[in-house]
């Protein structure tokens, strides 16, 4: 069967972790849509025009996720993501991915609202600012990045504000999304809850 799971929410809330685990559990394909915007941001940092970077984006540009997870790329991603032409250039790839046979999980900011408004399962994952900053800080430290907790918190706050304040596809829960506050949840608890939500949709 072809079932689409849309997972949205602010930075470092746990969207990707939940999306990967749900996809592995059900054998669905997974697309981290943030990587598309990060790849465009990376190309813009290298001197390219943002719209051209989005229109000529190919999968090889977002194959190396580790390079794209750096905070400077995240800021560039959030800036290009506010441009309607950039977003428009990335829509058809995401929709085609969502429609694949066998099920798909997409995580991002506008999956349940714009990319897949008909998704069978929509989750909006959140956690407090402090918890999200600490999670991302520990993740970056684990990758050998020299960052402070304050820098990480400022990066997330700036992006969340830009992502929810933009005119095109702002970050906001879909009317029919289930809200998932993971502040006090372990990864296993959050994943189990998400799997239960998908099972409920499968009937
Ligand atoms: O995809 P998103 O930016 O929303 O977040 P993520 O990359 O899945 O999670 C950010 C970090 O928080 C990762 O290092 C996860 O392992 C961690 N995490 C956690 O500690 N507890 C959770 N319930 C979910 C994620
Ligand atoms: O992992 P994290 O949640 O920190 O960020 P991400 O999901 O990789 O997204 C990076 C940036 O891309 C976000 O701050 C948004 O500006 C943008 N983005 C978006 O606008 N729409 C999406 N569907 C996914 C990401």
TrEMBL record:
Domain of life per record: Bacteria
- BP-aspect Gene Ontology terms: pyrimidine nucleotide metabolic process
Q: Please state where this protein is localized.
A: Cytoplasm
Question: EC?
Answer: 2.7.4.25
Which InterPro entries does this one have?
A: Cytidylate_kin, Cytidylate_kinase_dom, P-loop_NTPase
Its keywords, alphabetically, are:
ATP-binding, Cytoplasm, Kinase, Nucleotide-binding, Transferase
GO terms (molecular function) for this protein are:
ATP binding; CMP kinase activity; dCMP kinase activity
Q: What class of enzyme is it?
A: transferase
**Domain Cytidylate kinase, residue spans:** 5-199
Write down the chemical reaction(s) this protein catalyses: CMP + ATP = CDP + ADP; dCMP + ATP = dCDP + ADP
Region named Disordered: 157-177
Entry's Gene Ontology cellular component terms = cytoplasm
Q: Where does ATP bind?
A: 9-17
Residue ranges, compositional bias (Basic and acidic residues): 157-166
Q: Which Pfam family is an annotated match for this chain, by its short name?
A: Cytidylate_kin
Q: Give the family per the record.
A: Belongs to the cytidylate kinase family. Type 1 subfamily.
Name of the molecule in the record: Cytidylate kinase
Q: Which gene encodes it?
A: cmk
């Amino acid at each position: 069967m072809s079932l689409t799971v849309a997972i949205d929410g602010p930075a470092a809330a746990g969207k990707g972790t939940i999306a990967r685990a749900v996809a592995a559990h059900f054998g669905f394909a997974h697309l981290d849509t943030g990587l598309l915007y990060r790849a465009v941001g990376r190309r813009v940092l290298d001197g390219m025009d943002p719209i051209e970077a989005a229109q000529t984006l190919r999968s090889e540009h977002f194959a190396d996720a580790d390079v794209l997870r750096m905070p400077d790329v995240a800021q560039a991603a959030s800036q290009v993501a506010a441009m309607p032409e950039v977003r428009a250039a990335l829509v058809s790839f995401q929709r085609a991915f969502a429609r694949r046979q066998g099920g798909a999980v997409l995580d991002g900011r506008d999956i349940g609202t714009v990319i897949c408004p008909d998704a069978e399962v929509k989750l909006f994952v959140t956690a407090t600012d402090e918890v999200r900053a600490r999670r991302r800080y520990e993740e970056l430290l684990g990758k050998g990045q020299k960052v402070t907790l304050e820098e990480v918190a400022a990066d997330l706050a700036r992006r969340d504000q830009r992502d929810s304040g933009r005119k095109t596809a702002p970050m906001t829960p879909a009317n029919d999304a289930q809200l998932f506050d993971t502040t006090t949840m372990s990864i296993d608890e959050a994943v189990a809850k998400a799997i239960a939500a998908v099972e409920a949709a499968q009937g």
